[in-house]
Design a protein that fits this description.
12 helices, 235 residues, alpha/beta, two-stranded antiparallel ribbon, Rossmann fold, binds cytidine-5'-diphosphate, 2 domains, five-stranded parallel beta sheet
C-alpha cells in the first residue's frame, strides 16, 4: 500500500516521459508520435547536440581544431523554439534539418556530446522546455542525468541491422540494398561505441526491444504505460 507522503510526492513528479536508447533505435519518431497521442510536446535532445556540431562546423570546418570553448561559443547561435507539438532546434534562427542530419554532423556529434559544458547547456535547454509543459523527451540520458524523476522511463533497443535498415529507409525513402545496410550497420555500431559513456539505461526504465515491433506497436506500449502512470498519480 502507498503512503500519503509518497502519493503527494508522486503527484509532484514532473510530467515527463523519457525515452532513451542507442543510435537509430527510433527514439525521436516514437517520442513525437507518443507526444501527439498524449497531447504533450516532444523535445529531441540529440537535435541540440547536432545543432551545436553544425554550428561549430560553420565556424571551423576542421574539427581537429575544436575546443570546448569554440563549440560552446558556436552553440550560442542555437535556439530551441516551441512548435505546436514539438520543439525545433534552430541555427541562426533558421531550420537546418538536412545539415543537422547530414554525414558531416553525424560523424562528429559524439565528439561534441562528450564535452561536459556542452552537456550542461543541452540539459539546461531541455529542462527549460519541460517547465510548465508536459513533455516527451528523447536522447541517451534523459531518464538518468536530466530527468531522474520522470514518471515514465523507456529504453528502446533494436538489433543493429534492423536499426540500420530503418534509418536508410527514412533517408532514401526506398528499400536499401544489403550492402548499404551492412555499411550503415558498421557506422551505427561505431557511433554506439563512441556514445557508450553518455548512453545510460535508468534502473527503473522499461526496456522495449523494437526489432520485431511495428512503430505503431511500440507507440501503443509507451502510451499505455504513460496513461497508467497518469491514472496512478491522479487516483
Ligand atoms: O537519431 P540518433 O539516435 O542517430 O541520434 P540523435 O538522438 O540525434 O543524437 C545524436 C548524438 O547526440 C548521439 O550520437 C550522441 O552523441 C548525442 N546525444 C547525447 O550524447 N545525449 C543525448 N541525450 C542525446 C544525444
Amino acid at each position: 500500500m502507498t503512503s500519503p507522503v509518497s502519493d503527494s510526492a508522486e503527484r509532484r513528479r514532473p510530467l515527463v516521459v523519457a525515452i532513451d536508447g542507442p543510435a537509430a533505435s527510433g527514439k525521436s519518431s516514437t517520442a513525437k508520435w507518443v507526444a501527439s497521442e498524449l497531447g504533450m510536446r516532444h523535445v529531441d535532445s540529440g537535435a541540440l547536440y547536432r545543432a551545436a556540431t553544425a554550428s561549430a562546423l560553420r565556424r571551423e570546418p576542421d574539427s581537429a581544431k575544436w575546443t570546448e570553448d569554440l563549440v560552446l561559443a558556436a552553440s550560442s547561435t542555437v535556439t530551441l523554439v516551441a512548435g505546436e507539438t514539438t520543439f525545433h532546434a534552430r541555427l541562426d534562427g533558421a531550420a537546418a534539418e538536412a545539415e543537422l542530419r547530414g554525414k558531416d554532423v553525424t560523424s562528429r556529434v559524439s565528439l561534441v556530446a562528450r564535452m561536459p559544458r556542452v552537456r550542461e547547456w543541452v540539459n539546461g535547454l531541455v529542462r527549460q522546455a519541460a517547465e510548465g509543459h508536459p513533455v516527451v523527451v528523447d536522447g541517451r540520458d534523459m531518464g538518468t542525468a536530466v530527468f531522474p524523476q520522470a514518471r515514465v522511463k523507456i529504453f528502446l533497443v533494436a538489433d543493429p541491422w534492423e536499426r540500420a535498415k530503418r534509418r536508410l529507409i527514412q533517408r532514401f525513402e526506398r528499400q536499401p540494398t544489403e550492402a548499404e545496410i551492412a555499411e550503415e550497420t558498421d557506422t551505427l555500431v561505431h557511433r554506439d561505441a563512441k556514445d557508450e559513456s553518455q548512453t545510460q539505461r535508468a534502473v527503473d526504465a522499461v526496456l522495449i526491444d523494437t526489432t520485431y515491433l511495428t512503430q505503431e506497436e511500440q507507440v501503443a506500449r509507451i502510451v499505455a504505460l504513460a496513461r497508467q502512470s497518469q491514472r496512478a498519480s491522479a487516483g
